[in-house]
Design a protein that fits this description.
Layout lengths: L3 H14 L3 E3 L38 E6 L3 H12 L4 E7 L3 H11 L6 E2 L15 E4 L6 H10 L3 E4 L7 H14 L3 E3 L7 H11 L6 E11 L13 H4 L3 H17 L5 E8 L12 E7 L5 E7 L1 E12 L2 E5 L10 E5 L2 E5 L6 H16 L7 H20 L3 E2 L1
Parallel strand pairs: 2-3, 2-5, 3-4, 5-6, 6-7, 8-11
Antiparallel strand pairs: 1-9, 8-12, 9-10, 9-16, 10-11, 12-13, 13-14, 14-15
Helix pairs in contact: 2-9, 4-5, 5-10, 6-8, 8-10
The protein binds nicotinamide-adenine-dinucleotide (NAD).
Nicotinamide-adenine-dinucleotide (NAD) binds next to helix 2.
């Protein structure tokens, strides 16, 4: 495979010929997010609601209010919560009451446990709700986490934790003030292929790790900030890196087992493309680790679909392709002339196991693997990546 940074240089020439921008970010490409507001949305496409509500929860089950009824909540996470007995959907918080009533009836949530974004504070008096799960656009994670802690609830927050380290710090302070748990929804830590890869790397099955290549890319269809939060800077930060590239950052860290010491990066953004009026299109970054390992990460909303992580070590290679999806993972271990395909389990368990982990932290006070410190760490690396792209210099971490 071509080294991504060779690819970057080749692309630079192709892109320059096509009138695209490559190189250090312009100062205006990424900066402070503006004010963001929660606004109700229609029912997402492709949602199948349960025909019959899930069975009544056990007395020990943790009641969770879902904040934000979008694609991920309705297609993946609410069905997954129905598959576990450790927690249940006890409330909904939405800006679209008709949608919320329809979803609530399908999931057995009483009408009086449905709240709006403007009256979220009322969940404080609702003992059916012990925790919330924030599945809103990323720019809304911090304000809704702070409001939920002020209402005395535990918080599971989707990735990225927030759009700035300052927001992460506010969330952590609110969690400590309220003495309530804060977990980040990094599902890959509960997914059998990624867990097996972590174990193999920890056992040094490929020897000393030398090089990681991870790509998380797809080509986003025509869209614009007027209709899509994922291309609004205030809701999405720089764009693909916060949303999709964060999986590559995560994988590089949990597979090396190290914190990087330095990051350098380049961003690419096509001119006059409404998709990229506010965000960048492609981020190519390089993390260097104290052991000498190097990770080359590519993320983009403007490159053909790739989801992979390839680890090369002194004694072999570990290939995950796809690496971090909802399903379909593959894992191949190559040592010398031997190649072994591993099938450590069913990737679909990642969603409900993540919920079980959150519920156990609340009920049994077990340590959270994907904690707020991890979420903050990744937001810090993302900020440093943009700073490196902007300055054209490596940034130390
Ligand atoms: P989505 O656009 O499908 O849904 C977002 C929902 O947020 C909307 O339906 C609406 O209910 C609500 N919302 C409130 N204010 C809004 C506003 N101003 N603009 C748009 N929506 C608003 O998005 P999604 O794919 O469900 O993503 C939601 C969160 O989940 C994001 O933080 C994303 O990063 C995360 N996510 C995680 C995974 C994962 O695999 N862990 C996958 C997808 C999304």
């Amino acid at each position: 495979m071509a080294h991504p940074f060779d690819m970057s240089r080749r692309r630079a020439l192709q892109l320059a010929a096509a009138g695209l921008v490559l190189g250090p970010m312009s100062a205006s490409a990424f900066g402070q997010a503006g004010t963001v507001q929660a606004i109700g949305q229609p029912m997402p496409r492709g949602v199948t609601l349960p025909e019959t509500p899930p069975p009544a929860p056990t007395s020990d089950s943790v009641g969770i209010a879902i904040i934000g009824l979008g694609g991920y909540a309705l297609r993946q996470m609410m069905p997954a919560i129905s598959r576990t007995q450790t927690c249940h959907v006890a409330g909904l918080v939405s800006g679209n009451r008709d949608k919320a009533l329809q979803v609530g009836r399908a999931y057995g949530v009483p009408d009086d446990a449905i709240y709006g974004y403007d009256n979220l504070e009322q969940i404080a008096a609702d003992d059916r709700i012990e925790a919330v799960y924030i599945v809103l656009p990323s720019g809304l994670h911090a304000p809704f986490a702070e409001r939920s802690f002020a209402a005395g609830k535990h918080v599971l927050c989707e990735k990225p934790m927030a759009l700035s380290v300052a927001e992460c710090d506010r969330m952590i302070a609110a969690s400590e003030r309220a003495n309530r748990k804060l977990m980040i929804g990094y599902r890959c830590h509960f997914e059998p292929f990624n867990l097996a890869a972590m174990q193999l790397m920890g056992d040094r099955q490929i020897g000393a790790i030398e090089h990681i290549v991870s790509q998380h890319t797809y080509t986003m269809g025509p869209t614009s900030p007027a209709t899509n939060w994922r291309v609004q800077r205030a809701q999405a930060g720089g764009g693909a890196l916060e949303d999709y590239g964060i999986y590559g950052v995560q994988a590089a860290l949990y597979l090396t087992g190290e914190m990087p010491s330095e990051v350098s990066a380049t961003v690419t953004t096509p001119a006059n493309d409404p998709r990229f009026a506010e965000i960048v299109a492609t981020v190519e970054s390089q993390l260097t680790f104290p052991s000498g390992a190097v990770a080359d990460l590519v993320t983009s909303y403007d490159l053909p679909g790739r989801n992979e992580a390839v680890m090369r070590g002194s004694d072999g290679e570990l290939i995950m392709r796809p690496a971090t999806g909802y399903g379909g993972q593959t894992l191949r271990l190559i040592r010398g002339d031997q190649s072994e395909t591993l099938t450590p389990g069913d990737p679909s368990v990642q969603f409900h196991r993540m919920m079980d982990h959150f519920a156990a932290a609340i009920r049994q006070d077990t340590p959270i693997i994907t904690d707020a410190a991890m979420g903050r760490r990744d937001v810090h690396i993302i900020a440093a990546t943009y700073a490196a792209a902007q300055s054209g210099q490596a940034v130390s971490l």
